[in-house]
Specification:
disordered C terminus; disordered N terminus; extended
């Protein structure tokens, strides 16, 4: 834990260290007899003074802050029990003391170590302080490693988990070693004998079999006690995760059953009982692979075996003969289509098989449909064949190796062309496709084959020296194609063929040149063979049984003998003589290879002699089945791991025992095991089997009944808890299957002590869960489920977060059109208090939904936009008037407008829905009575009527109840034409103002508009078309600094002055615009949306003074109008007492606040009685007005900015 600067300063100042380091030598008292001169430079005698105890405090307003500590300090504490420093020695062999170890750690990691100990508990506490967290951790690890007692732990890991523990290129093992500073040893695969330091051989522990037949490999961990236990926990976690999964393959035979088995995939997945299982197939090998949960995989494999056995006895077949070329039509897709259509499988002979018989398999009732489907497919496309009559093997070799076959296929994409393999013996090329493309491809290939006439030749070169020839003359052989247009093809090595094929490029038509070139290349190849030098051939007599040892796995031993790039060929059992090995090559290489072959054969013979050791012993008959394992897997494990042979003989019919004083032959209950192999391996196998038998003899099994609701707790996340129980107590715990008749019975099998301990721990866990994980189930109406869940689960997560309970809603994915009376079970888990609180919240929501009512109103679509208002303000105001919740989340769904049509749906609490219905009907009634009247007012007067900030217009609309739309606004064109449009035909369209509302309100608003125009100070008397060329009319006006914000460039006053043709200049500016500057230690409020709010007094800190405006106008009337505008604006500011500053994180919400053409912000100003200014270049909205109106405006802006956009129809 890092110390604060103040704490560290107190620790370092003056006071003595309460826990001095053990390696600090105590200060010796000065001797009275010491008369030597004092060394004033000595740090021991005259230590440097500490920092004064009471440093001068720096004020908040200081220019510089005093920093008592220049760098952060990190501290951590830990305790060790039974430390043992004597295990570590110095270079001279002496044991290290605790002080020596601490001193080394302090020096190495630049840290300070403090020690305290408790004798009663034998526990030592260390406090480590250093300049960085990494230094403290490193020092802590070094102390733990040096002082903890060294222990050795062994973890038994399944062989299948070893690769995961080691990791790719040892990365996982390296990480564990570095993290825990331990030594981890894993026995090498197959290496059980190790060399001692003195060169002798010792036998290391061999893998032991697990209960399920898989081998266990001992992993040894050596290191400090705490670190070793940490490494053990990490490895056990890896094992638990690995062993919960497995992969098994099963080969489906006979072949005709495979397609039927594939159709049962859904049944196999069902056998997994919902476990995570992955099924894959290999059609080439006809294998099915199951991967996933171990028990589920076993059930799936068993289900597949049963399916195979069923179809083997249930299917019959019928044979039909089809031309070989038509067999090409039956590819994988065609066979799948036939079995889907007729429920019959089709078995086609391999292409190299000359047979033309096609077998159709299925039930007797389906064979007729199957035959019909086969015939339809056989006649579905045109097929044709062309025979290769001259040297087909040579021609096909050239076609395959030169790539001509692919070229021809690419040239005719609609035709499938099948070339047989050169070694198949077939010579017909088959074509499948439409008739016209097939004939075109056939014609092209026929022309190519004509060119191949006389263009091939074979040269007899002993196949044993093919590699030698290619190694020494490979470049020259490739050059024949460029120089003589002849290609040289060697046969595959596995065919032992001595014919080297020469092919003249078929594009050259001159037959004389073909034969001459081929003859010339043949002579050159034979000459090359002759120039290879002396080729020696040795034939060694080697019995066939040693050939496998000589070849090695995948011919690895044979390849090692030959070496890379050597002119050497070895044929094991060549020329059909099975007991010989033929070696051919240069004399030196042949002699070397001969010696190596004889050595390997001799070693194989010696191993056979060593592996002839036999040991016999008896085991009880009742354990034989488990020793053998499923399908012999247990015995097979021993054979693979120890290379031994195990035979089991039943002695039940030959047992003769002495009963009392008489000999009596009675049935024996034991079996005889005979193990053959190398003596150490055979004895090890015997030891393991007997240990397994002893373990099974001590086994017991118990069944405990645990309610199914607690099974997931016992299993744990990814099976980790049940795996820990099994590892800890050495038992096997089997959980019941869902399909089991007894779904609450848990089986525990193992040693008596382990079974008892595992049972007790499980029962204690269940009792704890019952006490602390109380669970109830409540039923709610299904209609309430969406409300309980909330949008994307928000509501249910909110309830769980507030109460601490876990809530599971059943059938939450059911379709929305559920029955009205349907109910859904809700399960609540947790402590009793949390469950009660969560139940109360859930039932409150359900009760509210049950009390809901739904009302549908028919409102003309033309009124929808008006009711909703800009940004949804109109609808929110309507809901506020009837007392609806102010939270936007709770308002969602109360009123829903359709995208098309006139049905408006109200849904919610009955009383609230009734109020909304009454208010909506009232508003709609008013809208239906609306009329649109027009009035002609000169466009030059419109700005005056709208007024500063739109305030006069909003007051007029509020006073009269009518809505006024001026030309140029977005809403102007959306309003219907005026009823009195005929009276305004002569008026300029730019002068026509529309007034909307009840007729009486419109007439009242028009009267007031005309009255305001009449009272306007003479602007209408000016001749608009009169050209004014001078601005000789000048006046000055004083605006106090307090109201300087009126002069902002984008302000209403500035725009109105310019619209009058009045320019102005100013002298004198305040330091700020009338908003009091906050102190840097002022606190500001930050809401959930990240908006910073500050309320200050208007002009409280403004200096005295005024700005002098010089007004310049073109005529006296304009100058008078400008002076009156300024006077009215200053009067309006007398109501302002406070300024609210809303600083947003960004400007993304401003368009919603402003609205279309300022409609929203005008509504907000009218609603709150304040002036709202949205800036153009920063993120702070300023609100001017009385304190109450400013706060109301702030709430309204927050509602509009973050209430979310209303969806269409809402």
């Amino acid at each position: 834990m890092a110390l604060s600067a103040a704490d560290l300063q107190k620790q370092l100042e003056g006071a003595p260290d309460p826990f001095p380091s053990l390696n600090d030598a105590p200060a010796s008292k000065p001797s009275a007899s010491n008369s030597g001169p004092l060394n004033t430079d000595s740090e021991d005698l005259f230590p440097s003074l500490a920092t004064p105890n009471t440093p001068k405090q720096a004020t908040t307003w200081s220019v510089r802050a005093v920093k008592p500590v220049s760098a952060p300090v990190f501290t951590d504490s830990f305790s060790l029990t039974g430390i043992d420093p004597s295990a570590y020695h110095t270079r001279d062999g002496k044991p290290k003391s605790l002080g020596d170890i601490i001193k080394d750690v302090q020096t190495k990691f630049k840290v300070k170590v403090e020690v305290s100990s408790q004798r009663t508990s034998n526990q030592t506490t260390f406090s480590v302080t250093g300049p960085s967290d990494s230094a403290v951790e490193s020092a802590k690890k070094a102390l733990t490693t040096s002082l903890s007692p060294q222990i050795t732990l062994t973890v038994q890991a399944p062989a299948s988990a070893i690769g995961t523990i080691i990791g790719p290129k040892g990365a996982t093992m390296k990480r564990i070693r570095e993290q825990t500073s331990t030594r981890i040893d894993i026995p090498g695969r197959g290496k059980h004998a190790q060399d001692d330091d003195n060169g002798s051989r010792s036998i290391s522990p061999l893998p032991t079999p697990a209960e399920d037949g898989e081998a266990l490999v001992p992993i040894k961990i050596v290191g400090a006690a705490s670190m070793a236990h940490e490494a053990q926990a990490i490895i056990q976690g890896i094992i638990a995760e690995k062993t919960s999964k497995t992969t098994q393959k099963i080969k489906v035979t006979p072949p005709h059953v495979y397609p039927f088995v594939l159709l049962r995939r859904a049944d196999f997945l069902k056998a997994a009982n919902g476990a995570d299982i992955n099924l894959s197939r290999d059609d080439g090998l006809q294998e099915i692979t199951a991967s996933g949960d171990r028990e589920a995989v076993s059930r799936v494999i068993e289900s597949i075996r049963s399916c195979i056995a069923f179809y083997e006895g249930d299917l019959t077949s019928v044979k039909i003969s089809l031309p070989k070329r038509q067999h090409r039509l039956f590819d994988g897709v065609a066979l799948d289509q036939i079995i889907q259509k007729s429920k019959c499988s089709v078995v086609i002979p391999a292409p190299e098989d000359p047979s033309e018989d096609v077998h159709v398999w299925g039930r007797a009732a389906n064979l007729g449909i199957g035959l019909q489907a086969v015939m339809e497919k056989a006649n579905s496309q045109h097929t044709h064949s062309i025979p290769i009559r001259t040297a087909p093997r040579h021609v096909l070799t050239h076609i395959h190796q030169s790539g001509y076959g692919k070229t021809l296929n690419n040239a005719h994409p609609s035709v499938n062309i099948h070339f047989p393999a050169p070694s198949s013996g077939a010579s017909n090329v088959d074509f499948v496709g439409e008739k016209v493309p097939v004939e075109a491809a056939h014609k092209e290939l026929a022309a190519y084959l004509a060119l191949m006439e006389g263009a091939t030749r074979s040269v007899q070169v002993d196949y044993l020296i093919h590699n030698i020839l290619r190694a020494k003359a490979g470049k020259q052989l490739k050059g024949y194609h460029e120089s003589k247009n002849v290609l040289v093809y060697f046969p595959p090595e596995n065919e032992a063929d001595s014919n080297v094929i020469l092919v003249y490029d078929p594009h050259v038509k001159a037959a004389i040149k073909k034969q001459a070139a081929l003859a010339e290349i043949e002579a050159e190849i034979l000459s090359l063979v002759a120039t290879l030098g002396q080729i020696k051939t040795d034939t060694i007599s080697v019995e066939r049984k040693w050939h496998e040892a000589l070849r090695g796995k995948n011919n690895s031993t044979l390849n090692a003998i030959i070496g890379e790039g050597r002119a050497l060929a070895i044929d094991v059992g060549g020329n059909g003589l099975e007991d010989i090995v033929v070696i051919r090559g240069s004399p030196t290489d042949v002699d070397r290879a001969t010696k190596e072959v004889l050595r390997i054969v001799e070693e194989a013979m010696n191993d056979a002699i060593d592996s002839s050791y036999v040991t016999e012993f008896q085991i009880p008959q009742q354990f034989v089945a488990r020793i053998v394992g499923a399908a012999g897997s247990g015995i097979q494990k021993y054979r693979e791991q120890l290379d031994v042979k195990i035979d089991i003989e039943d002695l039940r019919d030959s047992g003769e025992q002495i009963v009392g004083k008489k000999k009596k032959t009675i049935p024996s209950n034991v079996s005889l095991l005979k193990i053959t192999g190398r003596k150490p391996n055979a004895e090890e196998a015997k030891k393991r089997i007997l240990a397994q038998v002893d373990k099974m003899a001590d086994e017991t099994a118990e069944i405990i009944k645990i309610p199914r609701q607690y099974h997931s707790i016992i299993i744990g996340q990814q099976g980790k808890y049940i795996q820990r129980l099994q590892d800890k107590y050495g038992v096997k715990i089997t959980m019941p299957k869902e399909s089991s008749a007894s779904t609450d019975e848990i089986h525990i099998r193992g040693g008596k002590k382990g079974v008892s301990q595992a049972k007790n721990e499980i029962q204690e866990l269940v009792e704890y869960e019952k006490e602390n994980n109380h669970s109830i189930v409540v039923n709610v109406t299904s209609r309430a489920v969406p409300r309980i869940l909330g949008s994307k689960g928000a509501k249910i997560h909110e309830i769980m977060s507030e109460t601490g309970a876990h809530i599971d809603v059943g059938d939450k994915d059911r379709p929305k059109d559920r029955d009205e009376g349907a109910t859904t079970a809700v399960t609540i888990k947790g402590t009793k208090k949390a469950v009660a609180a969560a139940k109360s919240a859930v039932m409150a929501i359900a009760a509210a939904v049950d009390d809901e009512s739904t009302v549908v109103l028919h409102i003309e679509p033309k009124f929808h936009r008006t009711i909703i208002g800009g940004g949804g303000v109109g609808l929110r105001n309507l809901l506020a008037r009837v007392g609806a919740p102010s939270d936007p989340k709770e308002q969602v769904g109360l009123v829903r407008f359709p995208q098309n049509g006139d049905e408006v749906t109200l849904r919610g609490e009955r009383g609230l829905v009734k109020k909304i219905q009454v208010e909506l009907e009232r508003v709609v009634a008013g809208l239906r009575e609306r009329v649109v009247l027009g009035v002609s007012i000169p466009a030059s007067q419109h700005r005056m009527l709208i007024g500063h900030g739109g305030q006069p217009l909003m007051e007029l609309e509020k006073r009269t109840g009518a809505e006024v739309q001026f030309p140029g606004s977005r809403s102007y064109n959306q309003v219907a034409p005026a009823e009195n449009a005929s009276e305004l035909q002569d008026a300029d369209p730019k002068d026509v103002v529309k007034v909307v509302g009840p007729r009486s309100a419109c007439e009242k608003a028009i009267a007031e508009l005309l009255e305001s125009v009449a009272k306007a100070p003479g602007r209408e008397k000016r001749e608009p078309n009169k050209e004014r060329t001078t601005s000789n009319h000048v006046a000055t006006v004083q605006i106090p600094f307090k109201h300087y914000h009126l002069l902002q460039p984008a302000g209403n006053l500035t725009r109105e002055l310019r619209s009058l043709g009045v320019n102005f200049s100013q002298q004198g500016k305040p330091k700020h615009d009338g908003v009091a500057e906050g102190r840097i230690d002022d606190e500001t409020d930050l809401d959930a949306h990240g908006v910073e709010w500050k309320l200050v007094e208007y002009g409280a800190d403004m200096e005295d003074g005024a700005t002098e405006l010089t007004l310049k106008a073109r005529d006296e009337a304009a100058l008078e109008d400008a002076q009156k505008l300024i006077e009215d604006a200053i009067k309006a500011t007398e109501k302002i007492t406070h300024v609210g500053l809303m600083t947003f994180p960004d400007r993304s919400a401003f368009p919603r606040v402003i609205g279309n053409k300022g409609s929203v912000i005008n509504d907000l100003c009218m609603e709150t009685g304040s002036e709202i200014i949205v800036p153009r270049d920063d993120t702070t909205i300023k609100i001017y007005g009385g304190e109450e109106s400013v706060n109301n405006a702030k709430a309204a802006i927050t509602r509009v900015a973050f209430g979310g956009r209303r969806r269409n129809g809402d």
